[in-house]
Amino acid sequence: MALLSIRDLVKCYPSEGEEPVTVVDVGAFELASGEQVLLQGESGSGKSTLLNLIAGIVVADSGEILLGGENVCSLSESARDAHRARSLGYVFQNFNLLNGYTCLENVELGMSFGTGVDGEFALQLLDRVGLSNRRSYRPDQLSQGQRQRVAIARALANRPKLVLADEPTGNLDPTNAAVALELIQSLCSENGAALLFVSHDPQLESKFERVIDLAELNQAACLSSDRGCGK
Fold first, then answer.
1. Which is more confident, 137 or 113?
2. Quick check: 226 pLDDT over 60?
3. Which residue from 55, 111, 145, 198 has the fewest beta carbons nearer than 10 Å?
C-alpha cells in the first residue's frame, strides 16, 4: 500500500470571469514510504496548492487524499490539524520561524503540536543540521541558510511519515541551496520519511530518482475525464 495516494483530486478558485479556475485536477498520484519525489512546475501552476491540500491546510472541492490509509479530505478541521501534526513535516520557502523564540524553542514548538516535546531529540536535530551551537539564538540572529536549517530540523521534529518541501531552496544562494537539499534528503532517509519536494529549478532533477511535472498530472486528469469546477 502506498503511503500517499491521491485520486480524482480537484481544487478550484474564484475568478473574475463567470467560471472558477481549476488549479489542481489530479486523477491519480502515489508516493511510497521512504520515496523521494521532485515535483516541478511553473510559478502559479498549483504546486503549493497541491502541497496544502495534502497537508489539509486547504480543503479540496472533490476527490480523496489517503495518507497512511486515512482520507484527509473527510476529516474535520481540527482532525486535519491533528493528523498534520502526527504525520507530516513541512518545509516552507520563507522558513515560517517565530522570531520571539530561540532555534531550540522553534523546533520544540513543532513537537508540542504532535506527540509532545522531546528536548533531547530536538537537540539532536539541531546538531544534525550543524546548529547546536546556535540553539539559543533567535531566527533574526541567523543567516538565511541557517534559518532554513532550523526549519528543516523543525519539519523532522515529530518523526513524520511524509515531509513536504515547498521551494525550500528558492530564497537561498547556490551554496546554501545545495546544503539545504542534502540535509532534507539525508534527514528524511535517516528517519524513514518520504519526501515530496517542490521546485521549478531543473538543475535539481539529477538529485531525484523520480521527477514529475504537475502540468502532466493535471493534463492526464483532464484528458481522462470531464471533472472540474461545476462539471
1. 137
2. no
3. 145
